[in-house]
Amino acid sequence: MIIAAVFAVIAIVLVIAFAAYSGRHEYTKRRIRTAFGPEYARVRAEQGGTRAADRELARRSQMHDRLPLEPISANDREFYATSWQHIRGGFLDDPGVAVTSAAQLLTRLLEARGYPVDDQGEQLALLSVRHGPALADYRQALWVSERLRTNPASMPTEAKREALMQYQTLFEDLLTEPGAAVSRRIKESEVTP
User: Fold this and answer.
1) Whole-number pLDDT of residue 191
2) What domain count does the chain have?
């Protein structure tokens, strides 16, 4: 009788431990999926399922944790904010140049922060860890920039304007990341090109 009671207690403890482990594991997966936002659906479609997507997101998170990310100094924030304002101000004169300049400035900022700039696929994957909501805009802006590079006349001004605003989404996100408070000049001078 005592042996049966001991086995019953052990079985109950094991069931509770398994339930706690399963609940914690499921909570962690949901938290990761939520953190990646719309990027999760994209990864799931690319990877062909939930399990593969979860593995890819975990890989991205681990790789992101290994990045030597650097905060932006106050002087550099001022430089980037001023440069961005010049780019926006030049949009009316030459929208294509403004979009190209925005792409170059953003690449410079990504590199300064510590993100890879030589492998765009891996860059996008790593950006998705902390900047998932801004990533769809960034991808669209990259597409417009590529079209501008190959066939500048094919892009209407409205598409260029949207691309500039899409670049701005990630630009501001990178400047406001922890350790890199955004310059007031960006927020106070929200002028649409």
Assistant:
1) 41
2) 2
Mean pLDDT (whole number) for 24-50: 76
33: confidence class by pLDDT, cuts 50, 70, 90: low
Q: Is residue 41 predicted with pLDDT exceeding 60? A: yes
Q: Are 183 and 78 in contact (CB under 8 A)?
A: yes
The verdict on 39 and 90 lying in the same domain is no
Angstrom distance (rounded) from CA 111 to CA 31: 28
Q: Measure the CA–CA gap between 48 and 45, rounded to whole angstroms.
A: 5
State mean pLDDT over 115-132. Answer: 92
Alpha helices (H) along the chain: 2-36, 38-47, 50-66, 74-89, 95-113, 120-150, 157-175, 184-188
Cβ neighbours for 118, distance < 8 A, ≥ 6 positions apart: none
Cβ atoms of 134 and 170 within 8 Å: the answer is yes
184, pLDDT greater than 70: no
Q: How far is CA 111 from CA 49, 83, 149, in A?
A: 32, 16, 21
* Phi, psi (degrees; rounded to nearest 5) at 131: -125, 30
Distance CA 166, CA 134 (A): 8
Q: Is the pTM of this model over 0.85?
A: no
Residue ending a domain, among 20, 37, 66, is 66
